Amino acid sequence: MKNSFFFRFSLLFAILIVSIANNMALPVIINGKSAAADAFVFRVYHEADPISGLEVLLDQQRPDENGVFMLGFEATEIQKVSIRVGLQSVSFYVIPGKSYKLDFNEITLEDQSIFLPEKPLHVVFEEEDILNLVIDGFEYEYQNFLQNNFVYLIKLREKSLYYSFENKIASILEETIIEDSATANYFNTYIDYRMAELRWTARVEGREKIANDWLTEQPIKFSNTAYSMFFLKYFDKYMNDYDKGIHFSEYKNLLNEGLPIFELKDKMGKDPILVKEKLRELVLLYSIKQLFYNSGMKKVQLNEIINQLAMDSKYVENRKISANLLKSLNTFVSGGEVPPFSLSNLVDQQKSIKDFKGKRTYLMFVSPNCETCEADIRVLKSLIKENSNLQVLTVFTGLEKEESVKWAKAQNANWDFLWFNDDFALLNEYRVKIFPQYILLDEQTHLLDYFPPNPRENLRSYLQSLDKLKEEQEQEASDFFRKN
């Protein structure tokens, strides 16, 4: 373990030297110590962009027996990252080329409950970090102001309250000294857009003036989380609410036509806020994301639009965001591939999702000692005897492996049970929020239904309807070939 730690440090140091020499991305190094020793894997994530919301796993490591670990990744600019440990998480800002020493002194097994929502992860910076300090300080003032003045500011539109708070923040900023120019610029931009969001929420100024001041006349600043929050709030349900150019039904028709999108972009350009093509494309992408799963929207055509922007947009950033959005929206769409994994079954054989081709697979995520899970397993035992085209695959969680495996064996089921191996990243990828959770895959292990009926509902009749539909499709294909 010590050699592994030394190797990681040497590698990250070497990357730092090369990066500085080539004026490229700089490494960020997070040295940490966990009170839970090596009980959990530490994972660090970054959001690729605010529109797709796609999370990128930057690095992960299990601490050594003393709880010491090191995470490292490259960054070109200041960014917000999240460290996740089991079901706990904490977010903070990191600066390229900087190292951080963190002490996670409140992690225990008792804090980790599969049935509870993600909990905050308490961390102590061993060295004072000015950027996180000032942003946390501002957010405290900001949230406190909203809590105490929400009714008067938001509902009664008392603008004087906003201006009073703006003066208070300006006074605090005068007393805040940040020597590093990049850090100071990030913080000032952060303040600007948090206050712009407050102006918009309280309608202190008109819609077009706020947009012209903070969107149209400004460069895209998705690297700053406050800009991203403002963008998402300002353009929330844009195509549904916009009343100056065309009605939503016209937007819907143009979106469902798919390619080409010249007319769609021209219609959006009637809004003076969207005169710049780069901003217009981003609003289009965000609107598609919000409408993608709505009834009446044609996913194939929407995917065509996103894919065209991913391939042909004049703007590199927009192409990247389009590609991320395409991946994010289609991860759990019927016919798409599901995230791969390789886990051990009860006899220590490695199994991947591709090993289950040939039949429909009823993939279930369960938690040991879950009565609902056990009841569903009992129903499934009889159900797979009736349906020769159905197999079951169970991924079971549980922080104590021996106890979890003992529970799995006690179910006495004749299908594979795979332990998740403390892989909370896998649960994130499959968006598992509650147990049991089910996913139905087709014979090629592609997604058939992300929310199929559970075994105690109408799963039997649902599977019968799928069999009937498949027979009808095969018969139609057979008739077609006979006629031709």
Question: How would you summarize the topology of this molecule?
Answer:
Layout: H1 2-22, E1 26-34, E2 42-47, E3 55-61, E4 68-75, E5 79-85, E6 88-94, E7 99-104, E8 119-120, E9 124-125, H2 130-155, H3 159-174, H4 181-202, H5 207-216, H6 225-234, H7 238-241, H8 248-257, H9 262-268, H10 277-291, H11 299-312, H12 316-330, E10 342-344, E11 350-352, E12 360-366, H13 371-386, E13 390-396, H14 401-410, E14 416-419, H15 424-429, E15 437-441, E16 447-449, H16 459-483
Parallel strand pairs: 1-7, 6-8, 12-13, 13-14
Antiparallel strand pairs: 1-4, 2-3, 2-5, 5-6, 7-9, 10-11, 12-15, 15-16
Helix pairs in contact: 2-3, 2-4, 4-6, 10-12, 11-12
Key descriptive features of the protein:
484 residues; alpha/beta; 5-stranded mixed β-sheet; 16 helices; 16 strands; globular
Q: What would you say about this model in short?
A:
The chain is an alpha/beta fold.
Structure explained in plain terms:
- It contains 16 helices and 16 strands.
- The protein has about 475 residues and is of the alpha/beta class.
- A five-stranded mixed sheet has the order 3-2-5-6-8, with no helix packed on it. Strands 14-13-12-15-16 form a five-stranded mixed sheet, covered by helices on one side.
- It is globular and about 70 Å long.
- Mean pLDDT is about 85; it is low at about 1-5, about 15-20 and about 110-115.
